[in-house]
Amino acid sequence: MTARAPAGPVGTVTRGTTNPNRLRRMDRWIAATHGAELRRAPDPVTVDLGYGAAPWTAVELLERLRTVAPRARVVGVEIDPARVAAARPYEREGLVFRHGGFEIPVPGRPLLIRAANVLRQYEEAEVAAVWERLCARLAPAGPGSRGGLLVEGTCDEIGRRHVWVALGPEGPRTVTFATRLGSLERPSDLAERLPKALIHRNVPGEPVHAFLRDFDRAWAAAAPYASFGARQRWIRAVRELTADWPVLDGPARWRQGEVTVAWGALAPARSRP
Predict the structure, then answer these.
(1) What Å distances lie between residue 40 and 11, 123, 170, CA to CA?
(2) Based on the number of CB atoms within 10 Å of its own CB, is 146 exposed (0-12), middle (13-18) or buried (19 or more)?
(3) Crossing angle for the helix pair 56-65 and 24-40, to the nearest 10 degrees
(4) What digits encode the pLDDT tens for the residues 143-184?
(5) φ, ψ for residue 93, nearest 5 deg
(6) Which of 79, 101, 186, 251 has the fewest C-beta atoms lying within 10 Å of its C-beta?
(7) How many angstroms separate the CA atoms of 227 and 167, rounded?
(8) CA-to-CA distance for 217 and 222, rounded, in angstroms?
(9) Which of 69, 73, 95, 93 is nearest to 84 (CA)?
């Protein structure tokens, strides 16, 4: 009987584009919203999935998480073995690099998986299966814990504009829009950074299109607040949105140029019951 060869990494090699400080907005949100879970965990393992051609995002993730969870560990996972070899000199206490893909080649269940700009190059029809696979690898919920978190989304090359979905072991929870407010003409500018699950849904009849339309209207109505700065205009616009949309965060996050909405309100219409 011939022995079965071990399965290889799951996924395909991406372009690998990366820049220092590109994911700072996503990291800042993770630290604020998931930091307590990381602190409570006996072994708070995080996976930076598809970190790209250089290891900067994994190095920065460790530094940012340790400000809220000093025992946090980061495993950078890349499907391209040459990228793993290039990253190995940057290993340090709490940071290692591994060859792999969506199977997540780490022992146990990580408390956080960050997959930034990874699914952008996949087909929309492939997203649900990838999400399901990654969520199955997360630490399960338990007493006093909601379990692990998958943060999957897209940003521009220098990190001015992000949109990401946060998922728990049970599936998608929220969608967060984050931007450098000084670079924003209108909220719908963020549409070009919608994650793969939503970017093709930005058409009439779809919830995400309606949300961005309402956000633009609220932004226009808040124009008088621009004299106090873009931050005050954003806060006012988001406050107006709360009348019709399930906004889940508050002014402390809005001041950062963020807004988080329940996934169920923006999920593609065809996926609703």
Answers:
(1) 32, 37, 20
(2) middle
(3) 50
(4) 989 999 999 999 999 999 999 999 999 999 999 999 999 989
(5) -60, 125
(6) 251
(7) 37
(8) 9
(9) 95
Cβ atoms of 198 and 175 within 8 Å: the answer is: yes
Looking up tokens 């379990």 gives: 147
Q: CA-CA distances (angstroms) from residue 229 to 47, 95, 112, 259?
A: 37, 40, 35, 17
Q: Which alpha helices (DSSP H) does 41-176 contain, by range?
A: 56-65, 81-87, 124-136
Quick one: which of 68, 70, 76 has its CA closest to 48? 76
Beta-carbon contacts of 62 under 8 Å, excluding residues fewer than 6 positions away, are 46, 72, 73, 74, 94, 95
Please provide the size of the chain in residues.
273
- Answer whether residue 4 shows pLDDT above 50: no
Rounded Cα distance between 104 and 37, Å, is: 20
The pTM assigned to this predicted structure is: 0.93
Give strand pairing partners of 155: 162
Nearest to 94 by CA among 44, 139, 135, 24: 44
> Where does residue 133 rank: exposed (0-12), middle (13-18), buried (19+ CB within 10 A)?
middle
**Token pair for 250:** 């508050």
Region label for 210, one of left (φ > 0), alpha (ψ between -120 and 50) or beta (otherwise): alpha
C-alpha triplet 8, 12, 13: angle, nearest 5°: 110
| Distance between first and last Cα of the chain | 48
Least confident of 6-10, 25-29, 181-185, 192-196: 6-10
Which tokens is 193 given? 């950074």
